[in-house]
Write a structure and sequence with these properties.
The protein has 130 residues and is an alpha+beta fold. Helix content is 12%, strand content 15%. The protein has 1 helix and 7 strands. The strands form 3 sheets. The chain has a 3-stranded antiparallel β-sheet, with no helix packed on it. A hairpin with a 2-residue loop joins strand 3 and strand 4. It is elongated. The N and C termini lie far apart (62 Å). The N terminus is likely disordered.
């Protein structure tokens, strides 16, 4: 009969336990610098932003400019002690399969391009980290 010593195994497991419990230790963290909380912003008071393209949209007349319509919205942000902060606005949604600059619609062959001035505001998919 072969006898195996369990002491090295127990000792090895014991070495693994301190790093696991170290995360639960409380302590002070020193911080030096300025810490700012980003202000909460709302678009159009949280209401849905709708764009009316008119009563009679003709598929044959869609050419990229025929139905170009202003999209009215307002961005309001809480006051911050920092003063002015840069605001980044992202268009989250899937791009149309036929044009990566157009937002996919529920119609397979119809996409919507959103512009800021004359620059296309491209959809970024569902990845908010980009």
């Amino acid at each position: 009969m072969k006898i195996i010593s369990l002491l090295p195994i127990v000792f090895s497991i014991g070495l693994l336990i301190p790093p696991l419990t170290a995360a639960a230790i409380e302590g002070d963290i020193a911080f030096e610098g300025d810490l700012y909380s980003l202000p909460q912003c709302t678009i159009s008071e949280g209401a849905r932003v709708e764009v009316n393209f008119g009563d009679s949209v003709s598929i044959r007349k869609i050419d990229g400019s025929q139905y170009r319509t202003a999209m009215n919205y307002q961005i309001d942000c809480e006051e911050t002690s920092k003063g002015e902060l840069a605001l980044t606005l992202s268009l989250i949604g899937e791009a149309a399969t036929f044009d990566g600059d157009a937002l996919r619609s529920d119609r397979q062959s119809l996409g919507i391009k959103i512009y800021r001035g004359n620059t296309v505001f491209k959809p970024r998919g569902d990845n908010r980290d980009k």
